[in-house]
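Recall from the previous lesson that a structure prediction takes nothing but the amino acid sequence as input. Here we apply that procedure to Secreted protein from Actinomyces slackii. The sequence below is the only information supplied.
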Amino acid sequence: MSLTLPPSVLLALWLPSPSSRGAAVVEGQDGAHTVEDPTINDSDDSDGSGDPDDPLPLSAWMARVGRPTRVTAVLPAPADPIPGLPLALEAGEAVIHESGPGLRRLLVPSPSGTSMVWRVSALPTAAPPFDASQARREVHRATQEAIEALIELDLARERPDLADALNDLITAVIDPRILPPAVDPRRVELLERSARLLGICELALADDGAAATALQARRRAEVLRPLAAVARRGVSAATERWAPTSGAAG
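The prediction returns the following tokens.
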């Protein structure tokens, strides 16, 4: 089974090496993605020929802004919002893109028909960095806790089909064809583990109707939601990339 990664995660993985191939991976089977970026005219369009109100094809936007000094995907949720990113909270995902002194962008995907529009806004302050080493430890621990919790909650007895889906997720991997070349294997491993954990938690939490009582549903949420938050932070740590001159996190 292959893990499905959100568009923001794919974009964050490919932005350090902008290319038409990367844009194609992000777009997948959708129509061509576009980017609405009102910050690009002053900072990146040196000849003044661009109109910030005109959307750019994703590949053209990637080429225009070039390699970021820092990039990471974020997956905020109401239970664990990221301060200063309300637009990302509404969408459930976004990409933080920094390039040059003080230039910080937040890219939020918004479905448009069968395609996607990435809406860009300026970030007044830098988001705190993520610690990949700490994330590895937390995701490993949280995965064990999630498996033990699901056994204790006895979801297999309530929903055998759900148990099969959870078993598939535990061994799911990322299709290497959607990854940039020469990506750090440690980050791929962290991303896989985090995506598995998040998938397990979301699948179990989405099945509240299987709980025999409201108490069981509440217990499931109390146990799994904090573990899902660990998984989301793990995804951010795995996708965070710094330019060599800025140092590396994790």
